Amino acid sequence: MSTTAARRAGLDPLALRRDFPLLTAPRPDGSRLVYLDSAASAQRPAAVLDSMDDYYRTTHANVHRGVYAIAEEATRRFEAARLAAGRLVNAPRPGTEIVFTKNVTEAINLVAYSWGRRNLGPGDAVVLTEIEHHANLVPWLMLAEERGLELRYLPLGEDFRLDLSDLERTLEGAKLLAVTCASNVLGTVVDLAPLAAAAHAAGALVLADAAQLVPHRRVDVTALGVDFLGFTGHKMLGPTGIGVLYGREELLEAMPPFLGGGEMIRDVRLDGFTPNELPWKFEAGTPPIAEAIGLHAAIDYLTAVGIDAVTEHEEQLTALAVKRLSDAYGEDLTVYGPDPAAGPRGGVISFSFKGIHPHDVSQVLDTRGVCVRAGHHCAKPLMRRLGVTATTRASLYLYNDEEDVEALVSALGAVADFFA
Amino acid sequence: MAGLEDLYREIILDHYRSPRNRGELPTPPAHRAEGFNPLCGDEVVVYAEVEGGVVRDVRIGGQGCSISQSSASMMSAAVKGKSVAEARRLLRDFKAMMSIHEASLESDPAESAAEPEPVDLETLGELAALQGVVKFPVRIKCATLSWNTLAQALDEVESGSSAN
């Protein structure tokens, strides 16, 4: 089926499932694996696995160094992955503005370390939010302690979206706004473009944590107006160990290197070194070559399915899931997140169920082949703001369908029976 | 495949629904220690009042899953009124039952042994009900959380640090 035809026909999750070996592997009791934890990490289609396997089997060699044929090919594939990552988010200059890291956490730490240390000093303000993942919180807490920064937080509003009523005052005099694009707990999708514009008007740069956005929605860094943006391969059908930092060329140009070693240098003497040009200035040591190639395959797969089709599928399925959960359990189940009818919303559904602890909920769900996440989801301040220690979280992706939703709803019945 | 009945024995659910020794103790004279489960989502607070080498009183606070809360409840009942030495013995035996040998965690040469001593489940009383947890390794941390937190409190008593 051609890409256009697939898009017109809408996304067919059952057909897509067949591309994912783990989801279709035969299970001892013949049941279906209901994987509802893609927000933690997504599954891999065979195309991604094949791309990495083929690389290792036919053309692995270290990159940027070898003159021989397989080294040339390895380098070509690696750099092609970089350009693909840049095109995915519409970076103006993918050849210099895309830096490979090991994940989003490292990408944010890179900015905190290289840009933050050079440009932030005592009394400087950084604006964050109450809903951040620890990856976009802890690096700033660390930097704040080291450099005497003032951290300000945009609060969570009653409707589970950001409360922007005090935005102008919060941004006043700030040097950086670091914000998530989509919450990994609430499913809230942040309307980033106007937020970024307000930050720029106040003289602040903008860093976007797009870990939960890029796998699920079209992202255009130029249209959003962000200065830095991070995303990660393993949440978008790619392998673990590969993340991407987009940074505006003039910013990256002015920043000192992050990690030191080989590859990121132009010249090294006993008394000093000259850093390499962009983007390799920020890529020290042998990079995750196979992983970058796997990421490229994941980007191609998502593009072929159609990212807009993925978004539409998830929004429909999320609305269905929230409705089914409400129909089945009413007051016994509380969803923490915006109403799907009220606007764009990610396929992440965090909930409390009958006062039963998430560990226990997920334990019983496991006996029904339903995989959900229990805990604080690397967002402890948000948990405190919601007044809970932990929640159970189900997350949807392109390979989930109505049958998965029903399996979740019915398995929760088993939870209720067991702990009644 | 291990069933839920192995994990959630009746005693465990009883302690979960009616946890013993919930509350706080004034500090000082009691010591307060807080523990967080690396399998995130459980928090436990242990208040221990130790006088004359005896654990005179224990209270449990915090929120967590049925395994962590029931284990904390059972722990509190088991150590209250015991000497510190007896409490530490129970801790060692409980961890041995959870197949965790203390030496491998604390790397204290004085404590390490080549082979773990076989645990007499009789001495553990109700705590033996948590034995099924070993079939669900990820939940072992839930079961040991309150014990590790108690150990923290006892360590503080022993080092003579002022109660917070």
Strand content bin of chain A: 15-25%
Label the structural class of chain A: alpha/beta
Q: Report the average pLDDT across residues of chain B.
A: 86
Give the low-pLDDT segments of chain B: 101-107
Please list the strands of the largest sheet of chain A in the order they lie side by side.
2-8-7-6-5-3-4
Approximate helicity band of chain A: 40-55%
**How many domains is the backbone of chain B divided into?**
1
CATH architecture of the largest domain in chain A: 3-Layer(aba) Sandwich
Please summarize the sheet with the most strands of chain A: 7 strands, mixed
Query: What does the average pLDDT of chain A come to?
Result: 96
Order of helices and strands of chain B: HHEEEHHHHH
How many domains, in number, for the residues of chain A? 2
Radius of gyration of chain A: 22 Å
What class would the helix/strand composition of chain B place it in? alpha+beta
Overall 3D form of chain B: globular
Which chains share the greatest interface?
A-B, 15 and 21 residues
Shape of chain A: globular
